[in-house]
Amino acid sequence: MDDLIATIKQVLAETDMVLGWTRSAAAGVAVPARFHTPREAEAAVFDSTCVHNLAVHLPRLKDRRVGIVAKGCDVKSIVQLIAEREIERDRVRVIGVRCPGMVDVKKAWRCFGFGKKVEDAGGQVAMEGKTVAREEILLAKCRGCRDAVPVIRDAAVGGVQGQSVAAAGELAGIRKRFASMSVDERRRFWRDQFSRCIRCYACREACPLCFCRDVCAMQTREPHWTGGGVDARQSEMAQLIRISHMAGRCTGCEECERACPVGIPLMLLLEEQNALIEELFGYRAGTDPEATPPLLTFDAGKDAGGGGL
Amino acid sequence: MRIGVFVCQCGTNIAATVATDRVVEAARAMLGVIHAESIQYTCSDPGQRAIIDAIQQKDLTRVVMAGCSPRMHETTFRRAVQRGGMNPFMLEMVNIREHCSWIHPDIDQGTLKAIDLVRKGVARVRRQAPLSGSTVPVTRAALVIGGGVAGIQAALDMADAGIPVTLVEKGPTIGGNMARLDKTFPTLDCSSCILTPRMVEVKNHDNIKLIVNAEVDQVRGHIGSFEVDIRRKATCVIEQKCTGCMICQEKCPSRAPDEFNAGMGESKAISIAFPQAVPLVAGLRKEHCRQFVKGRCGVCQKVCPADAIDYEQEDEIVSGAFGAVVVATGYDLYDWTGSYPTYGMGRYPDVITSMQYERLLSASGPTGGHVRRPSDGAEPQQVVFISCIGSRDESVGRPQCCSVGCMYTAKQAILTKEHIPDSQSYIFYIDIRAAGKGYDEFSRRAQTEFGALYIRGRVGKIYPRGGKLIVMGTDTLAGEQVEIEADLVVLATGLTAARGAGELARKLNISYDGYEFFTEGHPKLKPVETNTGGVFLAGACQGPKDIPATVAQASAAAAKVIGLLSRGELETSPVVAAVDRNRCVGCFKCRDVCPYGAVEQEQLPGGRAVAHVIDSLCQGCGLCNVACPPSTISLKGYTDNQLIAEVVEVLR
After folding, report:
1. Domain that holds residue B586
2. What is the count of structural domains for chain A?
3. Choosing among A84, A207, A211, A222, which should be mutated to test the B contact, i.e. which has the most B CBs within 10 A?
């Protein structure tokens, strides 16, 4: 932790603030924090409960110089924001951290009870004497993680090789099961899921790449794509608007699903779409700072067979 | 809101499968509709009159016209409602012909669908706002790209009408492929005799500026106001000084392939393509020149009496402003050597292309017009012509007809007999296509008067044996194998788009097909237009065609340009994108996807940056609408709310 604090202090010398984590005494887990001074930075922590994607704050801080402690997957969001020119590379200092895989805090609380302090110990997570294998309570995205190594970084803590968890993605299995369902079954499934939506827009607010905020197409009445009601059809329309707007942009950080208070499995749709984009364009959002997002460009040459424009 | 609905019967085109009276009945019940009627032929004068009368008598403010595709008559009806006193954009066309009556055999279902479509149109027109375009000034000058017969014809027609024309040619001389032909079918007049005077006319015309050895580098702007950068490539010869005396060519020690003669014979590193070249100026090809390859020579510089050689010459960018562009980049011959392994792939010197044969026939060619075969210079007695090389051949990925091969092969068979009276020509063909005026008579004369033997079938293999070429083919009419001992084999190679056509199309924002031939605006009604306003097509760049068709199209393109440039200013389409500044989040995804560079950044007081559409550049394609996450940029007349209203009505 000393290494982390020292690095944050160094980065603070050339930035207005550093986004990182501190420990919440009440919840027993890490919570996001902004460090403005070396003294504040003393409270910085990094462990398996630093699940949050802090890149969500960057578009709102675009006129400041900001340092950010970031896991490999968080860095993908930063890369995508740079690719879309939402933030400037020069204004951001990325402190890459070695990520051990993040635990699903809800699962952890289920194992240990709410508010217990979570300790990292090798491959295990411990809470006041009880231990559990980290594998068992990892976030879905961390299983089969391909992006533990931050693709851009200005400083590194704990080595950046990261840890790729070998276990196949949980989601991959679910997607496979899904593919065998009929269209009607799938439609019923999603109607059921979206009927729970309370239109709180937490999914959108937690997403680093949803920067339209209060003019968001899933909420606005001008143009009137969907109503504001909470019946399944209107919620479904609203959610599908957001998901289609993520095509070729979603980095799979899972924050929308984690933020959802009613447990809608949004990643199921997003990962399906991400897989499609990768198949069609060979593009994974956030993995290459030099690449142009395929749906944000116009290549006349691509249309040669169909007649140019 | 006072909406009028007019349902066209289009004779029986619509009325046969759509009960138009029932559509009228249903329309009367739709929100805002105060007038509905069915008309037999709405596009006719009395039909349009009926719309105008209804607008004036019932004070209509919006009109739904249910009939044919808007591509057909939208402009017609916009003018009609305008004459009635309405804004022309308060009209909505509903297609109940191509989209309904023509594709549905059942009158009940056809009628129900027509009613749905009309309800959709009414919902949309309710959300329509009056639109008006702005005007942009027109630059009274035209650019012609390509100096073949098409470019020459278009340039001369426009220049004669008083329009300043810049003609850009990639090669060292104008004249194009036609200048390489010996005679032309079906009249057998001498190609250069009819073309050369036109080339000279271009050179001497007060209204034409000719730039050779040049290509279009960059195109900006739009109809009425294009800015074009033309790259004039360095030729190491100062054009203004060169007198065309050809002493440099005579003394040059570096041999180089003779491109004008299609590779038959040799030329020099510094040369003039042919004696009638326009301009008559030498050009140096560095890749073959000893001065550049070995670093020492300088012979041409020493012998040039006009001091016109400049080894240091660099590419030069010439910029110009034009109101319109005519593209006339012509064709290249299909390169057969890569795809016909059984014909030797170019290994046998006496298997040549039709253009190479053309040069052997020509008095200005490498053999002075005496037909001598390349291998030993002997006069061939048995000449085999093979049609459709790289045309009508799916196996090499070229399904299209070259449209000239049958005719020029007949011509070459006739000329062969004229040059060598005791020779015999054999022509392997698939079909004889001779649809033009006097063409069928001409190809029959090749057989009856000049004794050419036509064999219907393909040639399977060609191989050399004892100084001859054995041509093995099938006569599919007689149902037997044929074997001919030929002295010379001429391949009727097909026409491809000129090399680099696709790249030029992308610079000009015009469409092209999978073979890089440029796409006309409409196959019947807009044959010389493109989908980009102000850019017109002439000649084989649009598709293979012969000289008469090329010249006709070039004159048509010129007429279009003359019409366009006769106006001092142009009205722009009001159907352009517009940004709702209050809701723009400034992500500029619209700018990223815009193919026309029509979106710029606008700084609002207070520092917020939002997108702004430059009306005169916007083509109304709608890509920005799709890319905009909060849907704050939309196409006027096609707003999200209008489209949503349509969808809602259809799903009702």
Report:
1. 577-636
2. 2
3. A222
Same domain, A152 and A24: yes
Q: pLDDT tens, A262-280?
A: 989 999 899 889 999 999 9
pLDDT in tens, B408-460: 999 999 999 999 999 999 999 999 999 999 999 999 999 999 999 999 999 99
- In-domain check, residue A165: no
For B327-424, where are the alpha helices, taking DSSP H only? 354-361, 405-419
Tens of pLDDT along B48-69? Answer: 999 999 999 999 999 999 999 9
**Nearest Cα residue in chain B from A218:** B630
A221 inside 8 A of chain B by CB: no
Structure tokens at A174: 């679910």
Same domain, B267 and B408: no
* Boundary of a domain, candidates A125, A157, A189: A157
Q: From B496, B515, B544, give the residue that closes a domain.
A: B496
User: Is A302 part of any domain?
Assistant: no
Specify if A300 maps to a domain: no
Shared domain check, A152 and A201:
no
Residues in chain B closer than 8 A to A215 (CB atoms) = 583, 585, 630, 632
Q: Are residues A33 and A151 in the same domain?
A: yes
Find chain B residues with C-beta within 8 A of A85's C-beta: 587-588
Question: How many CB pairs lie under 8 A apart between chains A and B?
Answer: 82
Residues of chain A numbered 246-305 and touching chain B (CB < 8 Å)? 295-298, 300-301, 304-305
The C-alpha atoms of residue B180 and residue B162 are separated, in whole angstroms, by: 30
Say if the Cβ atoms of A308 and B506 lie within 8 Å. yes
Query: Which residues lie closer than 8 Å to A225 by C-beta, 6 or more apart?
Result: A217, A218, A237, A241, B631, B640, B644
CA-based R_g, chain B, Å: 31
- Chain B residues inside the 8 Å CB shell of A212: 585, 587, 629-630
State the DSSP H helix or E strand holding residue A172, giving kind and residue range, or none if neither.
helix A170-179
CB proximity list for B197: less than 8 A, separation 6 or greater? none
Q: Is A179 on the interface with B (CB under 8 A)?
A: no
User: In this structure, what token pair is assigned to residue B474?
Assistant: 């099938």
A308/B510 touch (CB, cutoff 8 Å), yes or no: yes
Establish if B135 belongs to a structural domain.
Answer: no
User: Which residue in chain A is spatially nearest to B622 when comparing CA positions?
Assistant: A309
The count of C-alpha atoms lying within 13 angstroms of the C-alpha of A83, restricted to the half-sphere facing its C-beta, is 27
Q: In angstroms, rounded to a whole number, what is the distance separating the alpha carbons of residues A104 and A258?
A: 9
Q: Is A237 part of a structural domain of the chain?
A: yes
Q: Å from B613 to nearest chain A CA?
A: 17
Cβ separation of A213 and B585 shorter than 8 Å? yes
Q: Looking at the structure, tell me whether residues B283 and B215 fall in a common domain.
A: no
Distance between CA atoms of residues A134 and A106, nearest Å: 13
Question: Is the Cβ of A241 closer than 8 Å to some Cβ of chain B?
Answer: no
Which residues of chain A make contact with B505, given a CB cutoff of 8 A?
Answer: 300, 308
ipTM, two decimals = 0.84
**Mean pLDDT, residues B491-495:** 96
Query: pLDDT class for B328, splitting at 50, 70, 90?
Result: very high
Specify whether B488 is located in the same domain as B514.
Answer: no
- Both A269 and A184 in a single domain? yes
Helix (H) or strand (E) holding B112: helix B107-126
**Spacing of C-alpha A151 from chain mean position:** 15
**DSSP category for residue B437:** T
Q: Which residue of A has its CA nearest to B507?
A: A300
A13 shares its domain with A127: yes
**Contact between B409 and B437 (Cβ < 8 Å):** no
Question: Both A179 and A258 in a single domain?
Answer: yes
Specify whether B279 is located in the same domain as B254: yes
Residues from chain B that touch A301, judged by Cβ atoms under 8 A, are 502, 506
Handedness of CA B270, B276, B278, B280 (dihedral sign): positive
